[in-house]
Backbone:
């Protein structure tokens, strides 16, 4: 498969990390999140509410629809144009999702749109709850959020009822504003956030894994969505934060890859694993047992790279970072690209993903 | 679909896989013993039933995956090797950018570069495979990466 047009499509989706999501205009949200950040929390919210409320739905379809729902609602002409040039199977899949969002009345579509509005109203309340009238917002939301159970959850959120699922959704919202540390330490202005990055990893999973028979796509999409959530309390960090000691080494190490013997790398990995597990448990420990169990098992699988889905999502995680590094290297002189080249050449071992990386290199070199 | 070849895994990876398999089999036994949730008029109407089936299907899929891996798994000590040359199970000390770095070359299913374990199928793993102490390995695109091999030891 030629990846050139997939890469062009991905380049266009970077605008979703800058442009506000379409619903924010209608709701008049001040300083709204980007499309990518909104899509991230919509995907997670819709999945968790479906499971928490015991609603029946095709989760594979729900997560896929959530990823592209703003393309159906907003005005992104160059993104839609690049979609038309995607390889046939991928293009047809995305077009079918967009068609469902625009024309059909499936349960999955209603759930995703309700989840999206839930997320939008939640953001409205987070940013402007102090000056808005609660009853007016509730009336508006009740008229707009078609899935009544979702509206009831939103009402609980505004009434500050102790609902652990609502609390969890509020907490993961922090990732929309948490810039990725690897870009901060390299002084990239206005860097992408953890939520932005998660959006790209999830989208890459949909684009590159959906036609693979050996992959459970639903599992891969869920894993992509939760793979960074422990950053809510653990923070985002880079290998430099862990490996560097002393100010001079700390300064120099941003342009050089940290280098250690295997035993020390394994020791440090365990330290990080412990810290992240603690953070994740703090985040999920009040959730209902079935949700806790699912999130924890997906996360452990991802960190320990047990399943094929975990191994591939991990490689896509590295590729998403590499894609961003390539963009930054074109924009900013002296950007230390070699660290990211080395990382991706260590991490990626699936042949189709290696081919994708080589195509990325060609595209960004031309 | 990947061809059915052998996997050469470290003792800790083999142990982990065996432990996970045992745990999942016990969970499956418990789930099935508890019995399936009641269905209403039709299975389609009961979300609990669907969730149970979904969980059981995921469990069974994972059990099958692990059984397949164990069927084809061998101890990494049995991996084919040539004395002094980089192969699966080797620890490789390299010099790059004037500093030393170290990797363990492993199968993809147990690779984790953050722990120093790189797959022999990754671009760097492939480049190092079959090389010996003193060799210089160069990856030239998109940037030049030069690894000088300082030491090769078989760890298992």
Residues:
């Amino acid at each position: 498969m030629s990846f050139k047009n997939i890469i062009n499509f991905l380049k266009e989706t970077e605008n979703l990390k800058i442009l506000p999501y379409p619903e924010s205009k209608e709701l008049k949200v001040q300083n709204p999140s980007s499309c990518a950040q909104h899509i991230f929390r919509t995907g997670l919210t819709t999945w968790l509410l479906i499971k928490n409320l015991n609603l029946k739905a095709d989760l594979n379809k729900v997560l896929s629809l959530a990823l592209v729902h703003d393309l159906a609602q907003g005005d992104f002409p160059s993104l839609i144009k690049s979609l038309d040039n995607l390889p046939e199977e991928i293009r047809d899949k995305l077009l079918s999702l967009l068609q469902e969002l625009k024309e059909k009345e499936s349960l999955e579509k209603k759930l995703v749109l309700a989840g999206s509005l839930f997320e939008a109203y939640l953001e409205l309340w987070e940013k402007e709850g102090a000056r808005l009238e609660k009853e007016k917002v509730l009336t508006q939301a009740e008229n707009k959020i078609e899935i009544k159970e979702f509206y009831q959850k939103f009402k609980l959120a505004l009434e500050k009822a102790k609902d652990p699922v609502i609390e969890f959704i509020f907490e993961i919202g922090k990732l929309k504003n948490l810039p990725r540390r690897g870009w901060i330490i390299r002084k990239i202005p206005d860097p992408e956030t953890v939520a932005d990055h998660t959006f790209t990893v999830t989208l890459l999973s949909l684009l590159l894994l959906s036609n693979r028979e050996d992959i459970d796509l639903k599992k891969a999409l869920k894993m992509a969505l939760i793979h960074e959530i422990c950053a809510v309390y653990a923070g985002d960090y880079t290998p430099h934060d862990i490996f560097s000691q002393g100010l001079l080494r700390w300064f120099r190490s941003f342009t050089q890859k940290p280098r250690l013997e295997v035993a020390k790398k394994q020791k440090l990995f365990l330290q990080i694993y412990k810290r992240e597990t603690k953070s994740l448990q703090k985040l999920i420990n009040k959730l209902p047992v079935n949700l806790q169990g699912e999130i924890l098992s997906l996360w452990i699988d991802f960190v320990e790279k047990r399943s094929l889905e975990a191994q591939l999502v991990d490689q896509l995680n590295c590729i998403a970072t590499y894609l961003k590094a390539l963009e930054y290297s074109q924009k900013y002189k002296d950007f230390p690209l070699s660290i990211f080249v080395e990382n991706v050449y260590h991490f990626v071992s699936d042949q189709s993903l290696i081919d994708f990386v080589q195509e990325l290199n060609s595209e960004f070199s031309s | 679909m990947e061809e059915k070849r052998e996997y050469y895994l470290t003792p800790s990876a083999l142990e982990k896989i065996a432990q996970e398999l045992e745990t999942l089999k016990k969970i499956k036994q418990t789930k099935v013993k508890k019995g399936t949730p009641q269905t209403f008029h039709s299975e389609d109407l009961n979300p609990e039933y669907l969730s149970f089936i979904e969980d059981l299907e995921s469990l069974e899929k994972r059990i099958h995956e692990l059984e397949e891996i164990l069927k084809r798994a061998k101890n990494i000590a049995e991996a084919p090797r040539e004395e002094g040359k980089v192969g699966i199970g080797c620890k490789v000390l390299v010099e790059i950018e004037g500093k030393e770095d170290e990797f363990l070359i492993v199968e993809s299913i147990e690779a984790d570069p953050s722990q120093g374990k790189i797959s022999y199928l990754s671009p760097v793993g492939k480049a190092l495979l079959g090389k010996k102490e003193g060799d210089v390995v160069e990856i030239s695109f998109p940037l030049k990466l030069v690894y000088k091999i300082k030491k090769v030891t078989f760890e298992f």
